[in-house]
Model the fold of this input.
Amino acid sequence: MPDGSYQMVSGHRRKFASELAELPTVPCIVRELTDDEAIIIMVDSNLQRERVLPSEKAFAYKMKLDAMKRQGQRTDLTCATPLHKLDGKKSRDILAEQSGESHEQIRKYIRLTNLIPELLDMVDNSVLKENDKLQMALRPAVELSYLPQNEQNALLEAMESEDCTPSHAQAIKIRDFSEKGKLNSGVIQSILQEEKPNQVEQFKMPKDRISKFFSPGTPAQKIEDTIVKALEMYRRRQREMER
Done:
């Protein structure tokens, strides 16, 4: 850094683990990097984790692509990007090759950065399997990313009221109404209340009514199975009493 100090680009968790282990020193590699080169190394390091949430991929890919584009606009950087451009490759094509994901998939992830935080959290919940929270798949989330922020907030309010998230087809319909300037809370409510293909009617019960019967942290599926077994036993008992 200009003041003579150093900035860590990757290895933060290893450094923290070393501190917990009370190691006096930690091996490291010191490199002269531009800000964009540092961003690329940081993103690549973070994407190597075992589980990366959609929101993390979204901002990581965007940061790296922006940095690669800036590098490609300069001729004084000794990086591969200008050479690739001579071969007719664009930054997004190189990013796709390096990440192992398709160009289209990267585009979808980057679109997620246009979502308000509450909707983006729902996409993460679909990976975390947070059964007590609203979950949303990637494809409908990408469609909703084209909505302006005020319409996303209106959609969020309707989703929480209806306790559901839109299907891909419903998200396309919502985006279409938005682009035509006809989207309002009434339209959103109407679309969310449409029956989805293969939709199964759900019965829901407040968690606090049954939580006392289960140990903290009991998986939702186990709770459901236990309740079903208890009802089956209750039904058999009722039939025996009727005899």
